[in-house]
Amino acid sequence: MQAIVTGYSSGIGKAISEILEKNSYKVIKLKSRLDDTKALEKEVRQVLKKDDLSVLINCAGVGIFKPHEEISIDKIQELIDVNLTAPIILTNLCLRSLKKTKGHIINISSIEALRHSKFSALYTATKAGLRNFSLALFEELRRADVKVTNINPDLTKTNFFDEFNFEPSDNKNAYLNPKDIAKAVLEVLQFSGVISELTIRPQRLEIKKK
Predict the structure, then answer these.
(1) What is the model's pTM?
(2) Which of 34, 170, 194, 207 has the fewest C-beta atoms under 10 angstroms from its C-beta?
């Protein structure tokens, strides 16, 4: 079985890639930048010429949390391109192949898609867009037997927080590990029905400032 996982080089994407490889999936690691649409299209079409796709996991994501007027136009475009436009385009490119295999699309959104946090307007907009794209696409693809799942992880201990002035606390009950999300992804793929949406949260809510 062949799978495309974006964001495979670190964090949740890396953990997902590793668990899929341990379970007989061939993980295709795209080299094109997600915001380079033409290069991305060319590479995906080349991949799909060789073999059909069983799984597409849109996991790559970037974030920023600050007053909206302080965010540069380039950064606004980057978040929209990586978090929302790229998954929509990748789904478009892969869908005919996924219909052949009766495959599965999993979009890694965020807990922020479900709430409205201070200084998160841009990030929330992209993740809420991805979530609603997923849920609407599920309805569209039911008759085609292509499964669609949206996953909303809460605070996960990864390098996602490297550039921010906050991060999860050291309390192990206040954050998720990437492997937790990866295990959930595998369970979703192995489930006989369809888990159209899954929200994964730690028991406690605690963050610390750097």
Answers:
(1) 0.94
(2) 170
